[in-house]
Amino acid sequence: MPALSQTRAYLALLVIVALWGSYPATAKLALRDFSPFFLTAARCTLASGFLVVLLLRTGGAAVRAVEARTLRIFLVLGLAGIWGSTQFTYVALHYTTAGNAVILQAAAPVGVALMARAYLGERLSRAQWLGVGVSAFGVLLVVTSGRLAALRLEELRAGDFLTLAALGGWSVYTVYGKRVLGELSPALATTGAYVTGTLLILPTALLTAPFYPAPRLASPVAWAVVFYQGLLGAVAHIWWYRAVQVVGPSRSAVFMNFQPIVGIALAAALLAEPIGAWQL
Q: Which of 67, 154, 204, 222 is most exposed, with minimal Cβ within 10 Å?
């Protein structure tokens, strides 16, 4: 694929984050019938197969480029971005609200910027450091439901902390991905990450199955979410890496601040979640 222009990269990022902003609310619909680990396994298996087909249609050159070092790259990307980030984002959603999750995910630019500073040597401007501080304060407001002083320990949601942990995986996926995109195409890197991550997710789903109710396999809503997030999400991951190639990880991650606009609205519309003053 030809490289994106900067304008198209920015437009692609807006579309991608709008799509991702819809994920928490729609995932909560699926989680009524599927466990978070089963939902992850179903989505990623579908996405992996879809990406492999897309990659093979581009010709065999990309597949022939795979070697031992490439497999190690796939392992890092799959472990961080798919097994760590995607999987535990769904687990987090099982234990928190969609509104909280999508707001906390907007803190991703902080993790990406700090990791890009440490790993790629990207310099942070004063405005970016200010953004780090503001985002950290925003995270505290969401996690404590706006009651920083009066909150009791038992009122904290485990899902909020799992969301933040999943963002760590996403930061690694984005920043490390920027470096390896010099030798791998976005399509190959994304496909390798998904396939490797899915191979790690499947045994995890089997091991955790006894701890959750059996999935309601006849649920049309849950399967609709699997196909919606699996197919569109797979394509979005490719375009995310294409945009990262052009504008860099830190600038790309800034667009994730737009996710709450879509996410909070959908959480209220689809799930009737109340919107707290600290979420605005």
A: 154
**Domain residue spans in the chain?**
6-273
Per-residue pLDDT of the chain (280 residues; tens, 9 = 90+): 666 788 889 999 999 999 999 999 999 999 999 999 999 999 999 999 999 999 988 766 666 667 778 899 999 999 999 999 999 999 999 998 888 788 777 777 777 777 777 666 666 566 666 665 666 565 555 545 555 444 444 456 788 889 888 989 988 998 888 888 888 889 999 999 999 999 999 999 999 999 999 999 999 999 999 999 999 999 999 999 899 888 888 778 778 778 888 888 888 899 988 766 545 5
Structure tokens at 11: 């437009």
Complete DSSP assignment for the chain: -PPPPHHHHHHHHHHHHHHHHTHHHHHHHHTTTS-HHHHHHHHHHHHHHHHHHHHHHT-SHHHHT--HHHHHHHHHHIIIIIIIIIHHHHHHHHTS-HHHHHHHHTTHHHHHHHHHHHHT-PPPPHHHHHHHHHHHHHHHHHHTTT-TTT--GGGS-HHHHHHHHHHHHHHHHHHHHHHHTTTS-HHHHHHHHHHHHHHHHHHHHHHHGGGSPPP-TT-HHHHHHHHHHHHHHHHHHHHHHHHHHHH-HHHHHHGGGGHHHHHHHHHHHHH-----GGG-
DSSP calls for 23-35:
HHHHHHHHTTTS-
